[in-house]
Amino acid sequence: MLPLILLIFLTSPSPARSFDCTFASTYPLTYSIPYTSFPPSLTGDPSLPPWPSVPPSSPFVDITGNETLEPRLGTNFKMAYDEDYLYVLGVLEETEVWANITEDNQVIFQDNDFEVFIDPSGTNTYYKEIEVNALSSLWNLCLNVPYSDGGYENSSRVMSPSFDMLQDNKTDKHWPTLKASSKTYPSTCINDPTTVPNKGWGVELALPISGIVYNTTSSPSPKPGDFWRINFSRVEWRVLTSPPDSNGGGEYYYKDPSYPNEDNWVWSPMGVVDMHEPDKWGIVQFAHPQSEATGGTEGGGEGKVTKVTPVSRYGSWGCREVLMNVYYAQKSFYASSAKYTSDLRILDSLAPVEGACLKCGKVEIEVYDEGWRARTEVGGWRGTVNQVRKLVVEEVGDEEGELDE
Fold first, then answer.
1. Which interval of the chain is the signal sequence (predicted)?
2. Strand pairing of 200-208 and 85-93?
3. Domain 24-306 has CATH 3.20.20.370
4. How far apart are CA 207 and CA 176, in angstroms?
5. What fold characterizes domain 317-397?
6. Which of 118, 217, 280, 374 is most buried, taking the most CB atoms under 10 A from its CB?
7. What's the average model confidence in pLDDT over 76-86?
8. Each residue's pLDDT tens digit, 157-181
9. Do β-strands 227-236 and 138-143 pair in parallel, antiparallel, or remain unpaired?
10. H/E run at residue 385
11. Mean pLDDT estimate for the chain
12. Euclidean distance between CA atoms 11 and 7, whole angstroms
């Protein structure tokens, strides 16, 4: 009997280890946005109210999350909001401040720039992107879905009429105007290598909330406790300094040809060199406008911002991660077979997190001619995702709305 017992012992499966359906290992960075009763001056100066009273973000990192690729220069942001605007301050270390693009709604990232990506509904659809350079030139656009899912740019750069927070206040949309201001410091010189080296540049943005939520299911007035998905990116090109020419032209900066690709430094790491994966962005929460703490003063005005409280847990995260693992697995399967599948075991073997498709609740997949749709319920939340990354979640108990669309 001993050999038989030994055989049974060797071939019996070991007890399955518990699977973390909260997906704590993939949870992104978070930030609490305080309410302010003192709008920024929009000078690009981080020393003016309300910014001294607003906590900074963590320093930016390489977009891939590779800790060995530490950025050469520091970057962080601050945010605040009121009834009309989301205010952003970007602080960028830089000794060689330059920019060439002077017109709005051009491809700003051909210069060094600061970028904001916002998905207020958390659906990966109709998200907004804003880019600004050291000359305060702006590019603002809306994407229906990410480029890799067949999405397209909606901006005045490529179509008319178009989405444009710089102009749409003059149309029937009537939202406040997008505003920006950049400032170099300690000097005000830009594009001039002969001056005393700068220490950096700052940028302030006033982003109209009604423009950000345009064409989404989000409220034009965020409520305290509401979550948005946001990320920030800094594009940095290496430059060289030209010598003066024989015609009396001065020194100037130009891109270093030995570094043909830009660096990408971000707030919440993406894991890939692609900002257009909104499901991987950071999580921000709007603080309550009560219990204000006094900040700085200017011209007799008192700058006030709410006390910062820890960001609550994003309750739908587990449900979202199950569905996004199905999405990435389907994308991988389609890339090799030119078709989709409803076989969860195959999908789980291709998912970024093994076990995500099988161990956190029942996943139902419908495959049809044009694509597919998956549905699940995890941790008190239910949701759906489809082949173009549209992700809709709601708490169990709510009436099903978009989930059935």
1. 1-18
2. antiparallel
3. no
4. 8
5. Pantoate--beta-alanine Ligase; Chain: A,domain 2 (3.30.1300)
6. 374
7. 96
8. 999 999 999 985 555 555 688 888 8
9. unpaired
10. strand 381-386
11. 89
12. 6
What is the layout of strands, in order, in the sheet containing 179-185?
75-81, 85-93, 200-208, 179-185
Q: What is the pLDDT of residues 344-354, one digit of tens each?
A: 999 999 999 99
3-state secondary structure of 141: strand
pLDDT single digits (tens) 331-343? 999 999 999 999 9
R_g of the chain computed on alpha carbons: 24
pLDDT band at 14 (very low <50, low <70, confident <90, very high): very low
Phi, psi of 90 (to 5 degrees): -105, 130
What distance lies between CA 391 and its chain's CA centroid?
16
What's the Cα-to-Cα distance from 218 to each of 8, 125, 134, 319, 342, rounded to whole Å? 57, 12, 31, 19, 32
Q: What is the mean pLDDT of residues 230-257?
A: 89
Q: Sketch the domain layout of the chain as residue ranges.
A: 24-306, 317-397
pLDDT number for residue 220: 83
C-alpha distances in Å from residue 288, one per residue of 12, 34, 116, 139, 256: 55, 7, 23, 31, 47
pLDDT of residue 171: 53
The β-bridge relationship of strands 263-266 and 282-286 is unpaired
